[in-house]
Amino acid sequence: MDETDEKIIKHLLVDARQSARQLALKLGLSTVTVLSRIKKLEKAKIIQRYSVIVDHEKIGYSLTAIIEIIAKNDKVVGVEDEISKFENVCGVYDITGSTDTIIIAKFKERNELSKFVKGLATIPNVENTITHVVLNTTKEDFRLS
Description:
Blueprint: H1 3-14, H2 20-27, H3 31-43, E1 63-71, H4 76-84, E2 89-94, E3 101-107, H5 110-120, E4 126-133
Antiparallel strand pairs: 1-3, 1-4, 2-3
Helix pairs in contact: 2-3
GO molecular function: sequence-specific DNA binding
Protein name: AsnC family transcriptional regulator
Domain HTH asnC-type: 1-62
């Protein structure tokens, strides 16, 4: 991956719907060059998929929870794999410190959050959870641009 690939990625992070021709014009490259580089980045799994950024609150997901998970013994990976299957889970992070895993999840209502947290306790090898409810979101954008 070189500087041109980085530029392509940064432009796609801003607008993944732009055509290769538009991107080529912005970068001063040929359309064929841009297309072949994008295909190379996709094949290398650097570009894994294309998506949209949604305002979750506007579609009803007004609650964001950050949940710490403490797993039993060496069972962290299995717990993280199980948690990753839940639809409303946005991120699962294996971390350092006294907590094993941090998850970020979105919910429409408090009762959904309550049910989710209680369900975490039923997952084999989950020893403890600590739930934090986000009061205000100042920034939520995982694009590195």
